[in-house]
Design brief:
Elements lengths: L4 E2 L7 E4 L8 E6 L2 E6 L9 E3 L8 E4 L2 E6 L8 E2 L4 E2 L33 E6 L5 E2 L3 E6 L5 H9 L4 E3 L10 H16 L3 E8 L7 H11 L4 E5 H4 L2 H19 L5 E4 L4 E6 L4 H20 L3 E4 L9 H5 L5 H20 L4 H4 L3 H5 L5 H8 L8 E5 L10 E4 L5 H10 L4 E5 L13 E5 L2 H6 L6 E2 L2 H4 L4 H16 L5 H5 L14
Parallel strand pairs: 12-13, 12-14, 14-15, 17-18, 17-21, 18-20, 19-20, 21-22, 22-23
Antiparallel strand pairs: 1-2, 2-5, 3-4, 5-8, 6-7, 7-9, 10-11, 10-16
Length: 505
């Protein structure tokens, strides 16, 4: 029987409508094996929540079996539950920490491994450091904003070259400079990059020669650099950089692809423009993909730590050790404390207006849906922003709740590709690593078909399962790794954002 709404857990007192509901209509949903129904007392938009019972003012609201907020006023059964009538409850982090060391009775999640009939392989580029890339770019890398336009022009004249637009690099405090350098050197070392041509101005905080030397200490890739003030201006710099980039591209063209096992893949996991379909369908499907990859020996990174808040206790329980469990809790606690020092509240900007229009009411509800994209396997490492992994398996990274900066950080960490879920739709891409866009919102797929790679709406209408979609996404990722272009990649999208503690002081 066709359903009108989805219940995520038997403990829930709201369900999410999977079609537009008119006042007076009967809303059918399943609670386990039992078919249930409730009559709508008012219009309920697609992907928004309807109350299953009368809720008093101040009563707890549950979705995914977890607290997503408290009511601001009485809400009758059959009425809309959204950001106007529930609010987020601050977290009690102190009680979420667990004992470490000999006194700990912490039970880590099980490690799973799988054997498939035959190897799961893709055609990649094996680098000298042992890592495997899935693209073979010559990267034109600016040291500062003043080198970005020249970098763009150079890349446009060299087949096989890509560039990034870097909007800072000057007049920054030490912490910002450190983060910028971490990202730029990370980009250069990404296994999708064959070689690097650096273009600087000459008076930036870290000049082209210094950046070149940093990169050369980290990798044996070919690296050259030019300074606009030293070469005689923009035209002369571009001429020299183009010649170097073409020579580098010619050498890159001699590198042959080889079959690589899926266990050698490092994949980033991102979501942006989320709505309720993200948490109930596309994110669980990507979580299934992540679990399958980890079981096969590959590694995945989930970032955006602000979007763990409200679900941080669930993420933490995936920690392979009590220390990792507590690191996850501390990341969220520290983030809230950091904002409070500046007189800010993370709940003021979360959920975003687009999230709210898509049925997400509180940061807790958003987070509980967001974290599902990371799967269920043990977390083996908690990385700083743009930090390079030292372990294999399921990994998380401490980044802000901004999808472009999170993708930037994961690519700087060495991710060869990124899978990106969305509900409302987003065109975001990256110059270095292909970004695969998936949505379970049929309307979004239809309205933004130019940007969406995969339609997972079958999970919503019941024509397919999360497990089936996870397997399909695994096959899609293998094809992307072997050379299939994502839509953002084919368009040449190259979004980048570097998080800073402060700007231009």
């Amino acid at each position: 029987m066709k359903i009108d709404a989805l219940m995520m857990d038997s403990k829930d007192n709201v369900v999410t409508c999977v079609r537009d509901i008119k006042a007076g209509e009967t809303v059918k949903y399943r609670n386990g094996d039992q078919m249930c129904e409730i009559t709508a007392k008012e219009d309920i938009p697609f992907s928004h929540k309807i109350s299953l019972k009368d809720l008093a003012s101040g009563e707890k609201v549950f979705k995914y079996g977890e607290l997503i907020g408290k009511t601001t006023r009485e809400i009758l059964a059959g009425c809309l539950v959204d950001h106007t009538n529930i609010y987020s409850v601050p977290r009690d982090y102190e009680n979420e920490y667990v004992a470490e060391g000999e006194d700990s009775d912490y039970k880590a999640p099980e490690v799973k491994t799988v054997e498939r009939d035959g190897k799961l392989q893709f055609l990649g580029y094996r680098r000298s450091d042992g890592r495997v890339g899935i693209r073979n770019h010559v990267l034109i890398l600016p040291t500062c904003a003043c080198g970005s336009e020249s970098s763009r022009i150079v890349a446009s004249q060299v087949r096989g070259a890509v560039n990034i637009v870097f909007n800072t690099g000057c007049s920054d405090v030490a912490a910002n400079t450190e983060m910028s350098q971490k990202v730029l050197t990370g980009f250069a070392c990404n296994p999708n990059v064959y070689g690097v041509v650096i273009i600087g101005l000459g008076c930036e905080t870290v000049g082209h020669k210094a950046l070149r030397e940093k990169i050369q200490k980290m990798t044996d890739k070919p690296v050259v650099s030019f300074g606009i003030q030293e070469e005689g201006g923009t035209l002369k710099t571009i001429e020299k950089a183009v010649r170097s980039a073409r020579e580098m591209a010619a050498q890159a063209g001699l590198v042959k692809k080889e079959w690589c096992d899926i266990s050698e893949l490092l994949m980033g996991i991102e979501c942006g423009g989320s709505d309720a379909t993200s948490g109930i369908a596309s994110n669980p499907a990507v979580g299934e993909l992540s679990d399958r990859l980890v079981d096969l020996g590959a590694s995945t990174i989930m970032s955006e730590s602000i979007e763990w808040i409200g679900g941080e206790h669930i993420v933490a329980r995936r920690g392979a050790t009590p220390e990792i469990h507590n690191q996850v809790i501390k990341v969220c606690e520290d983030y809230e404390k950091h904002l409070k020092v500046a007189g800010q509240d993370c709940r003021a900007g979360q959920p975003t207006p687009g999230n709210k229009a898509g049925g997400l009411s509180t940061i807790d509800e958003k987070s509980l849906g967001c974290i599902r994209k990371g799967g269920t396997r043990p977390i083996v490492e908690v990385l700083e922003q743009a930090g390079r992994p030292s372990r294999h398996g399921a990994i998380v990274m401490d980044t802000a709740g901004y999808d472009i900066s999170s993708v930037t950080s994961m690519v700087a960490a060495g991710c060869a590709c990124v899978i990106f879920t969305t509900g409302r739709g987003t065109p975001t891409g990256n110059a270095i690593a292909p970004v695969l866009k998936v949505t379970a919102n049929k309307r979004t797929y239809t309205h933004m078909e130019d940007n969406m790679d995969v339609d997972l709406s079958g999970i919503i209408d019941g024509s397919t399962t999360i497990a089936e979609c996870g397997e399909m996404l695994l096959n899609e990722i293998v094809e992307v790794c072997s050379g299939k272009l994502t839509k953002a990649e084919a368009y040449g999208f190259s979004d980048i954002a570097v998080d800073h503690v402060c700007r231009f002081v």
